[in-house]
Each structure stands twice: as C-alpha cells, then as structure tokens.
Fold this protein.
Amino acid sequence: MTSKALDGGWGWAIVVASFLAQLLAYGSPQSVGVLYPEWLHTFQEGKGMTAWVGSLVAGVGLIASPVCSACVDNFGARPVTIFSGVMVAGGLMLSAFAPNVQFLIFSYGIVVGLGCGLVYAATLTITCQYFDKRRGLALGIVTTGTSVGTFIFATAQNELIMLYGLDGCLLIIGALALNLMACAGFMRPLYMPGYYLKQKAALERNTDQQLFEKPQLDNLKMASGSAASAQEKTLMVKELLITIDGMDASIQVEKKRRSFLARLGIMKVIKKKKQAYSKYMTSIHEILQDQAMVAFCIGVFLFSLGAFPPVLLIEDVAQSQGLIEEVSVIPLVSIGAIAACVGKLVLGILVDIRWIKSIYLYAFTMFAGGVVLLLIPVTKSYVGLQILSAILGFFSGNWSITSYITTKIVGLDRLTQAHGIVMFFGGFGIMLGPPVVGWFFDWTQSYDLAFYFSGSCVLLGALVLSLLTLPCCNRKPASENDKQYTSNCDKVASVA
C-alpha cells in the first residue's frame, strides 16, 4: 500500500459509508427507550425482565468485540458488514413477530446486538486502514453516526408506532437496515484478509500436488495403427510400468514427507498459539497490576451501570408522570443523543489541552452525571426532564475519551489488550444496569429508589477513580507514566 492511499481520496467515501452504516445499525438500539413502553404495554411483563432487551442489545456487541474484530481480520470489512446487515435487519424484522419478551431478548437483544458489534468493528477497522495523519478526525466523524442515528430514529420510531403500530415500525426499521449492504459496497479493501490468504495458499498447494499425479490410463494405451513390432511394444510397456512403479514409490515417499511436515506444522502452530495465549494472559495480568487501570475499569463499570438506564427508561419515567402527549412530540432520547454528540466533540477537544488531566476530567463527568441521576426522581416537569436529559447526554459523551485515557495509563504497546478489558467492563455494566433499575421498580412501584441507586453507583465510581489515581495513592511512579505518555499524540488520537 502506498502513501497515496492514506488520508484522502477514496478514504472519504469510506468515512461516509461507515458513518451511514453506524447510523443505520445503531439508530434503533440506541433509541430503544422509545420501544420500551410499547413492549411493557404489549407483553405485560415486569420492567426488570423487559429491560433485558435494551441492555443486551447495547452490551452484547461490546462484550463480543474481540470476536467481532477477529471476524474482520479474517474475512474483511465488506463481507462482515454485509453479514451484519442481514443480522441487524433480520433481528429487527423477527422482533415484529415476537410472541413474548423471551423471544425479544434473543431476536432484538442478541441478534441485533451482535450485528451492531460487527458493524462497529468493521467500520473502525477499515477507517483506520485508510487514514494515518487524519485518522482521529475520520474516526470522530464515523462514531458520530451513532448519535445522529439515535436522534433520527427516536423521532422516526415514535411516528411509525403511531401510524403503523409496533410491528409495522420494526418491519420498516428492519427494511431500512438492509441498506447496510449498500454501505458495504463502498468498503474497498486495502489488504487481503487472512481467510483469502489461506485460500490462496491452499490453491498453490493443490497446484503443486498435480505435478505428482499418475498419468491417465488412456495415455498408456498404444495406438491401434502403430507399426511397432510386438517386441518393441513389450519393451515400451515394461518401460512404462517401471516408470509408473518409480512414480508410485516417489509419490508414497512424497506423501510420507508431507504427512510428517503436516504433523510437524500442526505441532508448531499449537506451540505458537500456546505461547501467544500465555503471552496474552501474562500481558493482561500485568495490565491489571496497574492500580490506575483497575480504578478506571471500576469507574467505567459503575458509570455504565448507573448512567445507561436513563437512555432506556427515561421515556417510561415521563409517561409514568402523565407527560405522554409531550413525549410523543419530542422524545427525551433524541435530546440526550444530540447532547452526547456535542459532548464527544467538546470532551475530545478538552483532553488535548496540556494542563487538563484526562482521567480527572473523566471523573468530573462521572460526578456531574451522578448528580443529574439523583435529581431525576425529584423533577416533576417535562422541561426539567429535558434539561436533565441534555446534561446527562453531554457528560455521557465521555465514552469517546476512554481509548485516550487507556493509552495514557498503559501506553500504546498494550493498548489493544487494555482497551478490550475496558470494553468488557463497560459492556457488563450496560447489560446489568437496566434490569437492576427495572427490578427496583417492580419491587417499589416507583423509579425513585432505582435512580437513587444509579446515581449513587456513578458517584461511587467517581470517588474511587479520583482517590486511586491520586499521586500519593497510586503505586505506579509518576515519572514512569510521563515516560510512556508524552510521545506521538497522533497515534493516541487515532485510537480515540
């Protein structure tokens, strides 16, 4: 690949296609709060059980991110995006015929969630391949597609439910998701994926094997009109038989040699994989020995546990306070999505300021988000809920700087493993948050205690993250951190 392929040209077509792919894939899952009250009314299940649908669709893709990345590495971004389009569209359409919440947990929560995880991995991977110096800008544009999709789909799903009902809404949204295949058409690969390299190697081996094949029997037959004498024919046949016997012996020797080499190759592969796995586990263990990394994982988990439920439940909170008509005009989910989009951009700019320490900025966003969550139960007007949704959405944009902070803690060399750990904790928190809040409502018949619990979790996470990363409490010397962090800001921005 030449430098001409980077930072421009077809790369901007990749950015537009990836932006639209994330918009189409994440539009409905991120605005699932609009569908949540309809599912409660339709299936008459508890809020805790119904909340599993929205929590799984958001968390499954994050937890399965290593598997999704492996699929992109082996098959390429284009085939994976096409397959993810089938999964997302199929899961949405299948959900229109769901007979109960348990079926929805599978069709919407797991199928659509895995499809979204594949889209996320494919779009980010191919964008990184096409950009070098402008990679941070390109990734920022691509990831904004989720927030724009949330804003558009929240309003669209509200209108579609009013016009065609819940089933018709899911069918139409699923049909729109099929356009993911059109987006995949623009994802022209720069590198040949691993699967095709293996196929090419297998084809070359088959070509080599053809050189050792036996000659066809037809080639050994004498022409009927041959003028050769019987003695000459006998000699020719003997020579051919000797030649065939020699070829048989050589083929047997070659087969034994290849069988031995194959077994030796398998043993080498197993040994290599074992060493790689051992090295990976050792690296994970060393990463988790860092107190700042452990504190950050705890903070991300507690923030995801407490701050994600409002995305799913805020519409039901407003409806439970008698604001149904106002909710149908402007969904609170849409307000939070636009605020999150602004928050991603503003927080991304702030972390580039030298005198601002990114991990304390993240702790501040957690503290502000926890205060907002504690204020939701005491807010009795729709305008107040709009303001709180906007503020919470803005500080929820801190998700965009998690990669930056991870790089600051562990450095670029271990970023891949460390980022996977952080994503696992975040996805686990997102999966648990809404069901826990729903169970609190089923127990008390009120959201008050649930949001007090959520706000307390976020504030606790902010406190843990702040205290454990103080220079006096952190076991890692500050000079070692500075030694790793001050180099190549472009690479840090490219990962974020």
